[in-house]
Amino acid sequence: MSMIERKTSFQPTGRAGWPICLLPNWRGGAASVRNWWHKDALLACDFREGRFMRGGTELTAAYLFTTTRASGISLPDNADILQTLGINTLPRTDRGLFPNDQVTNSIRYSEDLTPANWTKDGVTISPLHYRYLTKIIESETNAFHGLRGSSSVSIAEGEVRRLSLDVKAAGRSVISIGAYSSFSVGTTLRVDLANGSFTGGTNAKVTPLGDGIFRIETSGVGTANGTAAIQIRIGDGPYMGDGVSGLLISRIQMNAGDYFPFYVPTPTNAIATTMASDIRAVQGVRPSDGQPEPFLGWEAAGLDDGFSVLMDLNCANIAPGATRSPVGLYTANNSRFIRMEIASGTFRARSSPAEGAAYVNMPGDIAGGRIRAAMRYAGGVLSATQAGAASVASASAIAPAPLTRLFVGNNATLAAPWNDWIYGLQICSPLSDTALLDWVNAA
Length: 443
Hints:
CATH class of the largest domain: Mainly Beta
Oligomer: single chain
Number of strands: 38
CATH architecture of the largest domain: Sandwich
């Protein structure tokens, strides 16, 4: 065979000839693709990409999880477009999984500012929109320019509520938010939309959402039994408007409590409530006795003797003192468990009193933002660590009774909703300290 001849098929006899290819070790068939899950994972979920695995086989989410929620839910995707999901559907978009609590928005017409329940003070409502935002345009008068409205649910004296809205500059770059009647947010919240800086409000927060849009939040309290009324103004006070400039506003919400969990649209003259999501793994059956196991293959993989839980999630202490649990494993009657949680302002792993009530604080406590966190139970020891840590914290714990259920984003009584994004979850055999640290600190 000359040097310029090229073989395009195998030789019928003699020495094997392989076709030219660009993938080393390829020997025909589909090219091998590296798995996206940890090599020791028995169950893995990539909630952003919508990929799910159990026992080495990729499946759809319906084979891994059940969701019970007696209402629809609207969640943003990566483009900040609200996706409406029906009842009993996994609360997931391409931004991740959002295990939610029950939330009611008591502001009517949260996006449509034209109805009469929004009092217009020196403004008109433009028929043009920018994305999901509505423009309010100042009139050519020397006056206050803005909107007034109120919650459709009476407020009690001392009751705390969270007011929030999305806003973008549209010729004017300052927004002022205040309250009146039987509601107070403290000093008027003033936000400079050029850079997101602010003054005033109570426990105020300004979050950039991209494209010049900011999510503005402030808490308020009932000063008496009565009406929780709000005012949204362009600028700081009365001024001569130009008839063109204004602000883009939408997604106005008032919910109970001192933090904003997620947005609940109210498209009509009625409040809207999103019910809590109960998310749990589809159980398997133990080969040894026919009783339930957390998921198919748990007992066969030896996870009764020990396991690791790897989580990729967003972690913020949004409700100091409240208990929030991103993952937990429980017995049938819920009395015995091992779970990860934020409680009393501490991020930790813990076991139930029946397991010795071991508490293992995450090194670094609540790191905030997107992190990786891991916990492990093995050999009578409960361990935990998270991104940025140089060590694994551990404490002795009694071996749990056979676990039967895996809850994601809440505890077994739905009293600890995570109310934040979860990006990934993996259940593995017990990993070493080195392996845990390698995983949580991986780029």
